[in-house]
Amino acid sequence: MTRTLTIFICVLAFLSCPANAQSGFRIMSYNVENLFDTDDNPDKNDNDFLPSGNHHWTRGRYYHKLQQIAKVISAAGEWNTPALVALCEVENDSVLIHLLNRTPLKQQQYRYCMTHGSDTRGINTALLYQRDQFGYIGHREHSVVFTRKNHKHTRNLLHVWGKVITADTLDVFVCHLPSRYGGEKESEADRFDAARTLRNLCDSLLGTRTNPQILIMGDFNDTAENVSITQILAAGKIGKRIEAKKLYNLFADPHVLNYPGTHKYQGEWNQLDHIIVSGNLIDTTSSMYLLPGSNRIFAPPFLLTNDKTWQGKRPFRTYYGFKYEGGYSDHLPLITDFLLSLPDKD
Question: Cα–Cα distance between 192 and 177 in angstroms, integer?
Fold first, then answer.
């Protein structure tokens, strides 16, 4: 009886598999806001995030923050954690090693790449990847080519490339463009330079890869309508006609988004975080393509709290000013799903 039942289950499983099977591939982008350890880096301005600093950043608060970020990544994956997770505002290798080994994420066996740039506060960008879904080949960080002397010291651009299960090469960029600190207009020239550097890197890949598949994630500190994205990076909305070698911003159309923004400042929600792809990642005839309607802002109730100053909701942060809240971040994450067409088995 048991043997008969086993055979029946195996046959049923075989018959239920389509001839051209597909696999889901979820990606996530998240500015985790000041993920610092508690150790002093004498070469960086990290004094606020020390036990003796203005935020009284203790080991207990640090480890709580790690658990909170791990919770968000796990929840965003639903049944499975995302294949790729882009992170902004991580201090160093130590915080990533702790995140991946001292939280429930240890079970997911993520690996990571990160930048080690010249940002004055010491914050960097990183990419977490699951080795069974993304076969790492290499990575490189690129400094921004600035056109003016008095520019901000900013994060380097992280470029990671690897193979997905379709055997295609996926080029991933993680970026955190210069902030608006000091004024949006006063600082936009630096974001122009960062976007121009990123665009040049993309153009190089578009000209050399046989089948270029480009994925860009991160905090751009600009909205989808700003010049840095629409003109310099030239990433527009998805339209009826898709060109393989053009860039498209999956979060450019507010009418298809499920939430008013990822960041709230003085009562106004803004979409400063974006996921941008090359056109062939939208084309449904490709071996890897966007699942329509899957691009969304991840905004479960636990990531939000009441905004007592400006009304409505706001992100539940680790600190609100200098008041410790024990939350997550001042940004909400982004999620997008792709479908991978698995090679036929003989």
Answer: 9
Check pLDDT > 90 for residue 222.
yes
Helix (H, G, I), strand (E, B) or coil at 336: strand
Q: Are 288 and 164 in contact (CB under 8 A)?
A: yes
Torsional sign, CA 13, 14, 17, 21: positive
CA distances for 226 relative to 35, 142, 297, angstroms: 28, 23, 20
Rounded Cα distance, 309 and 229, in Å: 31
φ, ψ at 70 (rounded to 5°): -60, -40
CA separation for the pair 195, 20 (Å, rounded) = 39
The values of phi and psi at residue 10, to 5°, are -65, -45
Alpha helices in the chain (DSSP H): 2-16, 59-77, 93-101, 184-208, 227
Residue 289 identity (one-letter amino acid): Y
**194-226 burial code (b ≥16 CB/10 A, e <16):** bbbbbbebbeebbeebeebbbbbbbbbbbbbeb
Reading the block at residue 107, the tokens are: 């079970």
Six token digits for residue 69: 């970020």
Q: What is the mean pLDDT of residues 109-137?
A: 95
| pTM: predicted TM-score of the whole model, two decimal places | 0.92
Q: Where are the strands (E) in 187-341, listed by range?
A: 214-219, 235-236, 247-249, 263-265, 268-270, 273-278, 288-290, 296-297, 304-306, 313-315, 319-320, 323-324, 334-341
- How many C-beta neighbours within 10 Å does residue 253 have? 14
Q: What is the tens place of the pLDDT at every residue in 270-318?
A: 999 999 999 999 999 999 999 999 999 999 999 999 999 999 999 999 9
